[in-house]
């Protein structure tokens, strides 16, 4: 089992920055990809960014150039630096990890952290 704990959300003015963190813990063989999703009020959850264990990343077009994901494998932690925030970035942000537990691969989710961008 893998537990994911997110932190770093909050209220910020448009154009500002926030940094989210997601720390993984538990019993697992390895964590492969980690990433972030978000869900705005009244909308479906959408993918934001993924990063592999090697550090290769891919971003949704809506955040490319503004958000940066990084990963510290020693700490089993992934970070999301969000710059030039827009009103439409307001959402609950969820961390996701793909982990190998025994011989199977599972997706795990954090509890979410609220990001609110104000004008």
Descriptors:
119 residues; mainly beta; four-stranded antiparallel β-sheet; elongated
Question: Would you write up a description of this structure?
Answer:
The protein is 0% helix and 61% strand. By secondary structure, the protein is an all-beta fold. The strands form two sheets. Strands 2, 4, 5, 6, 9, 10 and 11 form a seven-stranded mixed beta sheet that branches. It is elongated and about 45 Å long.
In short:
The protein is built from no helices and eleven strands.
pLDDT under 50 segments (min length 5)? Answer: none
Shape: elongated
Structural class: mainly beta
Query: Terminal Cα separation, in Å?
Result: 40 Å
Secondary structure layout plus pairing:
Layout: E1 2-7, E2 10-13, E3 18-26, E4 30-39, E5 46-51, E6 57-59, E7 67-72, E8 77-82, E9 91-101, E10 104-109, E11 113-118
Parallel strand pairs: 2-11
Antiparallel strand pairs: 1-3, 3-8, 4-5, 4-9, 5-6, 7-8, 9-10, 9-11
